[in-house]
Amino acid sequence: MKIVFDLDGTICFSGKPLTRAMVQALDALANHGYEIIFASARPIRDLLPVLPEHMHHYPMVGGNGAFAAAGGQLISLTPFDQATKEQLLQLLLHFKADYLLDSSWDYAYTGDDEHPIRRNLDPHGKARNLPYSELTEIVKMVVLRCHDGDRMLSELQQLSVVTYVHGTEDIMDISPQGVDKWSGLQALGLRPQEYIAFGNDANDISMFRHASRSICVGEHAELKRIATHSVKSMEEQVIEKIFGLIPAKSKF
């Protein structure tokens, strides 16, 4: 059985790496034959630092589906097409937005140095912060702040993109049309109903809809409504739910 885990707010919290207790829980799953897959809004570059090194070769989806990697190698990348990219850049300028643009590895960031997104961005300093004109492609966009956010969101909804609004962080997370976590999982070869999913936010809805079972961490109303189980946003409860997946006879 395959188990897909979102990261932030699901198995890691406050942008910090997985705790020792969480790593032990995931290792217990792996030792009992489960295949672990990570699916995050983070690009692969920022996904790796929160994982222990022995999990860096695990299958993973990054950028809400724009990246797929396995065995430590990128196997799928879905950037914005040229016309959509130009439309998005025009909106950034028009609404005087602060943003994070991700390419396959490097990025363009114009936000506040104290923004939570910045604190989790390339913590090991392995990529370059470049002007957007120097990025070879743009795979994902995050709008951190802008003038007239409601109007910008309305403009975004007219484009061929997928937009998630994260209310708790007050950001807009934008991906190419047709890209979501389920499309990323498909790039890894997953089929409907062959995995269990853990998640906590709107960008996990697509993978919940195709899971055999799903566990909502926290109180996101729409995600909780389609989940088969839910737990509070507390690491101890998530770990308890993870260990509950291991057959009782295998625990002794």
Automatic annotation (TrEMBL):
Q: Name one GO cellular component term.
A: cytosol
- Cite the InterPro entries for this sequence: HAD-like_sf (IPR036412), HAD-SF_hydro_IIB (IPR006379), HAD_sf (IPR023214)
The record's listing under SUPFAM superfamilies reads: HAD-like
On the tree of life, the source organism's domain of life is: Bacteria
Under Pfam families, the record lists: Hydrolase_3 (PF08282)
In the record, what terms sit under GO molecular function? Answer: magnesium ion binding; phosphatase activity
Question: What protein does this entry describe?
Answer: HAD family phosphatase
Species source reads Paenibacillus pinisoli
Traced from the root, the source organism's taxonomic lineage reads: Bacteria, Bacillati, Bacillota, Bacilli, Bacillales
